[in-house]
Write a structure and sequence with these properties.
five-stranded mixed β-sheet; 7 helices; 195 residues; binds zinc ion
Length: 195
């Protein structure tokens, strides 16, 4: 994952967020003039813009840019897609893996595009449930396959670091459309991803 070049950061937004971070750090009880914190507000402002860049990206365009007419009509699976997102309730990370499958209906999509649309939706303030649905609907509406399935397994820092401290719990969400609503197809997919 390449970092964005400095020129790509919105200078106005960086400045606004930087100044707010400064105040947040002071409010939390830190000494903002400490050496190690000198560049922290600006770094944090840029990090947050990077982690929420999905608001400015169009997942439909990404899929459409690599759709190819093809008669292959068996299940296509991309599993273990790394996923990093931010929970919208605490603005803390949740991270894990996404597994995506679809059954083509005349068109296939470049395989690298599936991880890319995961990133586009993950790099926003999210809940895991909606993230799952958005990936599912985007593929279903754009590629119009015979079926699509998405499973996400993620650990949530807001659970792990805060009061609950269920440190090894993993949240699983899933969604199925078309052919995957049939139990046999769904089971074949779940077996192939090792569930
Ligand atoms: Zn949370």
């Amino acid at each position: 994952m390449a970092n964005k070049k400095f020129e790509e950061y919105n200078i106005q937004v960086t400045d606004d967020v930087k100044n707010r971070y400064k105040n947040i750090i002071i409010d939390l009880g830190e000494d903002i003039s400490r050496d190690g914190l000198e560049k922290t507000p600006e770094r944090a402002a840029k990090a947050m813009q990077f982690l929420t860049q999905g608001y400015h990206q169009d997942p439909v365009e990404i899929l459409k840019s690599a759709m190819f007419k093809e008669s292959y009509n068996e299940m296509v699976i991309v599993k273990d897609i790394e996923l990093y997102s931010l929970c919208e309730h605490h603005i803390l990370p949740f991270f894990g893996k996404a597994h995506i499958a679809y059954i083509p209906n005349g068109y296939i999509v470049g395989l690298s595009k599936l991880p890319r649309i995961v990133d586009v939706f993950a790099r926003r303030l999210q809940v895991q449930e909606r993230l799952t649905e958005q990936i599912l609907d985007c593929i279903n509406d754009t590629l119009k396959p015979q079926g699509v399935a998405v499973v996400i397994e993620a650990a949530h820092m807001c659970m792990m670091m805060r009061g609950v401290q269920k440190q090894n719990s993993v949240t699983t969400t899933s969604g199925f459309r078309g052919q995957f609503e049939k139990i046999e197809t769904r089971n074949e997919f779940l077996k192939l991803i090792g569930k």
